[in-house]
Amino acid sequence: MAKTTKKKNTSTKKINKIAPPKGKLGVLLPGMSGAVSTTFIAGVEAIKAGLGKPIGSLTQMGTIRIGKRTDKNSPLIKDFIPLCDLNDLVFAGWDIFADDCYEASLKSGVLEKELLNDLKDTLKETSPMPAVFSRKYVKNLNGKHLKRGKTKMDLAEQLIEDIKRFKKESGVDRLVMVWCGSTEVFIQASAVHSTIKSFEEGLKKNHPGIPPSMIYAYAAIKCGVPYANGAPNLSADVPALNKLAKLKKVPISGKDFKTGQTLMKTILAPGLKSRMIGLNGWFSTNILGNRDGEVLDDPYSFKTKEQSKLSVLEHIFQPDLYPDLYSDYYHKVRINYYPPRGDEKEAWDNIDIFGWLNYPMQIKVNFLCRDSILAAPIVLDLVIFLDLAGRAGLHGIQEWLSFYFKSPMHGENLYPEHDVFIQLMKLKNTLRYIQGEELITHLGLDYYDFA
């Protein structure tokens, strides 16, 4: 029989017109004096001064393939699509402690004092605004640099005023907000979170189901500011704020920066699943001594983090589809506050697996990581990509940014994607889509052959 060939349709067109990144971009950081924020700010200033490189940042160091492999066309992402330049970032934020960025960086103990001294004059120019905070939601912290208001709506309006004032006084053209504050006590979505009206009534009536992170998210969205949540708190991940984001045409994303142990899980688990290797149990424990560890020493805050970390394996392994391999594994997560370790977290994983004919095997992982060093480039990429999303007219939940989160926000009636490799493919294909380039499927075929 004669062989025929049919050429694949590769035509595509640019769907979104991207506004150019003109002017300065204001970066608003709740939790500005914490280890993550200060490492991010000092790191960006160090890179701008030529004192370091943006290791870990996809926007600054990553490439993207365009077209066929044989085209050998893989530009840097920042050269492929119009992104904000690091020199155009301007920082502001809020914290319960009044230390300027230099003093806060020293106390965080992440970066070397010699480097911080080289950046001292620049870092001392940035100090936090008084924060919205309540010990009802973060029991192990007690700062004094706080806003006062009769109602949570009063506090939200003060944040909105802060945002407007900063934009006017700094002269920035656009804004992005990234929550870098602490993990709050566990809260489940309820009726107060169901509609914009019920949420705003809850703000006026001081509803206990609205923690500070939600107040920040509300203020950002009301001001048209893209918002990302770096903690496992519900924050913007409730129907009311999803609806408000769509109404205001604001991109939002979260939750919980994917840094140490969970990053390893989302790398290892897809590999095990790809080879149909079974799982009996996965035990994870951590020690860390920074402010995050102190906060998570409270069982009510730990429960919020635990829910975020436990959800990863279930969605990757899909036990309903592979009952023989993953329907009966045991998953345990522990976090222990150990002050001497500071920001240098240590994570241990014991993984009990089984293979051919049910023969057991084990994997041991000992990850000595630096939490804030891993988180800082995530903050940078989220700032840059959320600004891109805003300029490209994307709004609502940005699932293509799931790559950066332990517990990704997702569309209604969908499950979250946790596989880091699928997440990266989706992120890069979204960039190709925005630019009108052909999506990469990795089929590797130029022609379909039929006998």
Give short descriptive properties of this protein.
13 strands, 2 domains, 37% helix, Rossmann fold, 7-stranded parallel beta sheet, alpha/beta, 4-stranded mixed beta sheet
How much strand?
Answer: 15-25%
The CATH class of the largest domain, by name, is Alpha Beta
Order of helices and strands: EEHHHEHHHEHEHHEHEHEHHHEEEHEHE
Query: What would CATH call the homologous superfamily of the largest domain?
Result: NAD(P)-binding Rossmann-like Domain
Assign a percent range to the helix content. Answer: 25-40%
Instruction: Classify the fold: give the CATH topology of the largest domain.
Output: Rossmann fold
Contiguous uncertain segments of 5+ residues: 1-11
Q: In terms of structural class, how would the helical and strand content be classed?
A: alpha/beta
Biggest sheet, open or closed, and with what strands and sense? 7 strands, parallel
What is the count of structural domains? Answer: 2
Residue-averaged pLDDT, rounded?
Answer: 93
What is the number of beta strands? 13
Spatial sequence of strands, sheet with the most strands: 4-3-2-5-6-7-12
N-to-C CA distance: 7 Å
Q: Note the total helix count.
A: 16
* CA gyration radius, whole angstroms: 23 Å
